[in-house]
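cron nightly-structures :: item 1 of 1
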Amino acid sequence: MANIPTSGLNSLSNLDSGDLINISEDLGGGSFESRKMTAGNFDMVHGTRYYGVSATDPSSPSPQNGDEYYNSAIGIKMYYDGTRSKWLSVETETVHFGRDGSTLAGSYYRGIDGQALSATNGIIALENGTVIGIGYTRDDTDSATFEVTAGGTLITGAVLASTSLSGKTKNLNSNFSEDDILAVRNQSGGNSTTNVEGWVRLKWRI
């Protein structure tokens, strides 16, 4: 076992799987912080693992928040989201929706070039994915709720209640599947909304 200061991590090489390494950091005043790790099929820099290339989500060693790998099956770099406890794409897709004028409760908003969204007209999902956020502005404050749908069915948890001129959430964790048709509507049972501009943020997963 070798003692390696954190300053030497970038030059660490020639390790075999199973090698035991003791990583130490000088905290000053004669104090050190140490941690042992076993070399495997990953690199570790400043406490973050990079698992390399894989067609499946790595599970060993157990991933921690911020760990990364490249998924060769979908061609996307992934990171481990410790809050949502899943691997998600580093990249984020933003889908826009809105409508000039009034949108009745139970009706869909509009997308590109004013096209009406619906169960069959919307954004086709590139891969399996997760809705992580919704945001909007509007010209009224009547109680209403934005819903993200897949093929006309509400994606569980992909909602944002609104009684303000603007708002957002970035804490959603709502899954959909590859090839789902994604759209946004004004939830039934509420009120009409006026002059809405909105976005939905997506990340991909396997």
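cron nightly-structures :: done
The first strand starts at residue 2 and ends at 5.
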